[in-house]
Amino acid sequence: MVDIQNEKDERAVPLQKVGVKGVQYPITVLDRANGTQVTTGTANLFVNLPHHFKGTHMSRFIEVFHEYHGDLSMKRFLAMLEEIRVNLEAERAFGRLSFPFFIEKEAPVSRQKGMMRYDCSYEGAVWGPGGKLAKDSVVDTKTTSQLENQKTSKGHSFFITVKVPVTTLCPCSKAISDYGAHNQRGIVTVKVCYSSFFWIEDLVTLIEKSASAPVYSVLKRQDEKFVTEQAYENPRFVEDLVREVYLGLKEMPLEKPFKWFSVQAENFESIHNHSAWAYTEYEG
Amino acid sequence: MVDIQNEKDERAVPLQKVGVKGVQYPITVLDRANGTQVTTGTANLFVNLPHHFKGTHMSRFIEVFHEYHGDLSMKRFLAMLEEIRVNLEAERAFGRLSFPFFIEKEAPVSRQKGMMRYDCSYEGAVWGPGGKLAKDSVVDTKTTSQLENQKTSKGHSFFITVKVPVTTLCPCSKAISDYGAHNQRGIVTVKVCYSSFFWIEDLVTLIEKSASAPVYSVLKRQDEKFVTEQAYENPRFVEDLVREVYLGLKEMPLEKPFKWFSVQAENFESIHNHSAWAYTEYEG
Amino acid sequence: MVDIQNEKDERAVPLQKVGVKGVQYPITVLDRANGTQVTTGTANLFVNLPHHFKGTHMSRFIEVFHEYHGDLSMKRFLAMLEEIRVNLEAERAFGRLSFPFFIEKEAPVSRQKGMMRYDCSYEGAVWGPGGKLAKDSVVDTKTTSQLENQKTSKGHSFFITVKVPVTTLCPCSKAISDYGAHNQRGIVTVKVCYSSFFWIEDLVTLIEKSASAPVYSVLKRQDEKFVTEQAYENPRFVEDLVREVYLGLKEMPLEKPFKWFSVQAENFESIHNHSAWAYTEYEG
Amino acid sequence: MVDIQNEKDERAVPLQKVGVKGVQYPITVLDRANGTQVTTGTANLFVNLPHHFKGTHMSRFIEVFHEYHGDLSMKRFLAMLEEIRVNLEAERAFGRLSFPFFIEKEAPVSRQKGMMRYDCSYEGAVWGPGGKLAKDSVVDTKTTSQLENQKTSKGHSFFITVKVPVTTLCPCSKAISDYGAHNQRGIVTVKVCYSSFFWIEDLVTLIEKSASAPVYSVLKRQDEKFVTEQAYENPRFVEDLVREVYLGLKEMPLEKPFKWFSVQAENFESIHNHSAWAYTEYEG
């Protein structure tokens, strides 16, 4: 049977990335409370394609992912990318894996339990000895200032993103109004460059503490009173929220501190039909 | 050239609806302030297919829609469905057309102007003399109690839906807290069975008046103080919001009152990561 | 602490449904190959609210769901709705639970294994002795002709929906072209009224057999040749696909046959930027 | 009235971007056939915020956008960003504006006319004399290798993105199968760094010529035969498609050639439930 993909291509156009997108699988990740957690993931998996090859072999991405989906802790994710790189005979491999992560959380007064969902993703790249790193080497053309410094002969980059819904109460609205203050659900997105092991649960806690108040699945009346007053006492612009999380990430107790991270916050404004948004980036 | 669609089908399975979905077009609708408004529409267009035909002729839906897209006032929408029914030689034709509708709106104190977007849709059915009306005869399997009473020999049904973002402030949170009250963006969806001409703009106004406060595109500080206090003075559960809109729709000054409508409200709760929701229906 | 929700409402507007929407939780469902399967669900949970009550108690929905999420087989879903109805002191309770369901599937020639995702949902209603059934009694205003016949003094309705991606190849394009035929991914949505136990896996198999060819996660070259030729030998309009599935469902070996079902198919046409769509409904 | 946003911030955390997201407006852009085209836009507008300011003034973004929405040709978009930068007293301003763009297109044989929708966006940044350009200076943290070379004392960057749906037919499937070949809808996304004026319509034509066949809104039977055979005669992997568009963009007749562009193609595979994807980037 002919192998069209293996044919020689004469157009001299190298492809930075080629692969599969939107592959949906059950996956297992680490969970501090329960050891592991089964959740549902969506994966994009790519390699570079040298200019003289006509096409890549798409089925091999799925074959490797199938092997790994039962254990996709942070370390295993990079091992999977390296196996993809080798199996596809490529210089570089890239991957993004998005998944909801669930944590059981107690209401602040009644201690009623409910599950909270936090959308997370892994995003990584691995390269071999001859794999000179292109500027675009993180999946989906996202920037990474970190990578510029890593043009070593063999290496990898690895980013983890966590999205946390919170309550924000507007400092301006509180200050200028005789009573009340507009508040709303917001979402904080933190992306860190992996330096040493950490728990997703700790990132979530840090972010929730930086907001006007956390959000919960279950709140009884005594809890609702508590979070209403907590938010009123802790007004936060998106700008404040991003700065508080930034300071918290810099001081987070880790084996090795984060060398790069970004923080963004989006408020689904209760007085507008659009969002307020703020973004900052740290590079150590 | 053979016409496979016209071939006889022996399986004896009639199809209630067959057609095209997700057709995207620029369209023109009526606008009280400016006469007409150009916006972007998405159309689903169907007919019934008797059991002895193998397939329908999909291109004819687009041909008729192409003729009408430059003027899709409410009346023209039904005329378009009737032309589709006749061209496709069907007993019944169905259509849904969704589009954003824009209204320029002034801030309450500063009078600064901004555009607001309201998602709207038309949803209709037409049937010919022999077209006994099936229970499912509104597009996309949505219910309509109205239709049950309209099994006339020739006829039509027509529904208009308008979605309006608003601010809601929680009465419980206000009552039990020493200060503050959680509030959030909500969205009210009203669907009415067309009885006589009305302006979408009037439905929007009625809905905004029923909320804790309207939302705006531009608010200067004096406006923000105004809406913050307005919301605090007018706490509303989703249940209250739906009831206020219900009462307003019943009393709306129209040539002929609405014989059927539904009202739903969804609050993107600022203290939860899920929504509170309420629904009611009126049949005159 | 005051209980605003319990206050008397004088507006005389009953609410058919009130509750929570978009609640996201890990859930466990039945799986023929492995006993159970952990996946991620999104729930909408409602009750009716008599006109004399001001509001419902939203936290109770989550409390009951939290108890049940570790085992949400079909039967347990109805038991959960009944518990919600009783806890909320309502005449009727409604629920929809959407979740991806995964099945390991082998490529047709190479027998390579990959996971396939099928989006499913449960949709149900329960009512108590005094709970006269409204026309709109399925969640989210979806129609159900079935319910009309079930105005018994106490009862329930239960629907299961399964969405299956498939390949369809156009019979017209094949017949009129000298070579080739346009084909595309399509999605078939089957909704059945529960009559007796069945496996989701069996619905999936029936639907895949009705298409031009199934879709797979992993296909090696010998598999790709197989499915390409299989699709070319089995051209199917959306109309054909819907009729084949309809006939299959009528004859499905079950303890009790389905009394009601609907079948729809949507083709993401490769020659258009819109979909072709067909719908049929059966009532026994 | 106090101005909280103007207060001094002591946390020493500069914010690269702060502003509004998801602002929805009717907008007017250039159209080769008709002079101008009214469509519906979604805007994200940001500025940088020096570390000593507490917050930005969100209403000013909307005020400026409101002035410009009636004429948002490419040049006016940059003028709008500069006006935002000056009004917000910032060193840098950023904007993204996404909108559907419609072109009337004739079927290849019957010459039937239909409208096609192409999703487009403008993405730009402007900076003042003292505005040292950060690495992240394109909105939403997207990469741009181009910008690295533009750290001039005052300047701007400007990118235009166009998404074009096409048909692709698999070369491998055609080569290994006795008859038929799988094909599907794909979408090509081209992003160019603006160098001199061009028509969006010309980018669309170039992309459609690079595919196995274009897609259309209306196709009569003679047209369907034509595009089926055209696609079978022109098999294209996503890799081929990206390379053909890359070569076309390099040779596009322009006053000044593009100095940077990227091309990506995503195939909604008819034999899988995931996509095949390829990406390349050019820097002159």
Largest interface: A-D, 55 and 56 residues
> Strand tally of chain A, please?
9
The chain-level mean pLDDT of chain A equals 92
How large, in whole angstroms, is the Cα Rg of chain A?
Answer: 22 Å
- Decide which structural class fits the backbone of chain A: alpha+beta
* Overall body shape of chain A: elongated
Instruction: Report on the biggest sheet of chain A.
Output: 9 strands, antiparallel
Q: What are the low-pLDDT stretches of chain A, counting only 5+ consecutive residues below 50?
A: 132-151
Helix content of chain A: 10-25%
One letter per element, helices H and strands E, the order of chain A comes to: EEHHEEEHEHEHHEE
Q: List the quaternary state of the chains.
A: homotetramer
Strand content of chain A: 35-45%
Q: Figure out the total of helices of chain A.
A: 6
Q: Give the CA-CA distance, first to last residue of chain A.
A: 53 Å
Structure description:
Four copies of one chain form a homotetramer. The first copy, chain A, is α+β, with helices and mostly antiparallel strands. In chain A, strands 1, 2, 3, 4, 5, 6, 7, 8 and 9 form a nine-stranded antiparallel sheet that branches. The longest helix of chain A has 14 residues. The radius of gyration of chain A is 22 Å and the shape is elongated. About 7% of the residues of chain A have low confidence. Chains A and D meet through β1, β2, α3, α6 and β9 of A and β1, β2, α3, α6 and β8 of D.
